[in-house]
Specification:
The chain is mostly helical. The chain folds into 2 domains: about 50 residues; about 140 residues, Protein Binding, DinI Protein, Chain A. Helices cover about 75% and strands about 5% of the residues. The protein has 6 helices and 3 strands; from the N terminus they run βααβαααβα. It has a 3-stranded mixed beta sheet with strand order 1-3-2, covered by helices on one side. α3 packs across α4. Pfam families: OmpH. Keywords: Signal.
Amino acid sequence: MSSSLVKNTFGKRKVGMLLATSVIGLTLTAPAVFAQANKTTAGAEKKTEAAAEVSSNSPLKIGFVNTEKILRDSAPAKEAQEKIEAEFKKRDEELQKLANSLRSKAEEFDKNVPVMTDAERSKAQRELADIDTDLQRKRREFQEDFNRRRNEAFSGIVDKANAAIREIAEKDNYDLIVQDAVTVSARIDITETIIQVLDKK
């Protein structure tokens, strides 16, 4: 999907690290002639360095989201799938009828070919080829239209999923939420949480 489900947010501890670094940078440029100021600065520097060290030692909070599962199991995805299938049901039935007709004609041809003249056989073969070509074209158009319609519907669901992920990331202070991974622990999989949020919308 073009829309990325990756979220990288800075929690309060990250802001603390940035502020600590800024304070350290400023104190290093303070004039050396102010001895008292230097003592105060040194004390502040130690405190900010300690805060930065604690912050940097804090583990990252990471979550994983299975997009395929969201587009399969969430209520909006199921609703969209049912709607699309209903829209294309008539065309699908027409394709089935055409395929059945081709099969019947092919079976009839195989049955009668021993008693056909060369002209009759050539004519029947051309008719079968024309029906098959028409069937393949209609199947291709059907698949292209179906995929286009599905992509349109599901892109909206992906947008909603992205919004839900941002909401959860900010609410629960996630540092990183990823979409694809080779292996994932169930401990960091928040897909069901995202689906629950989507189902309520």
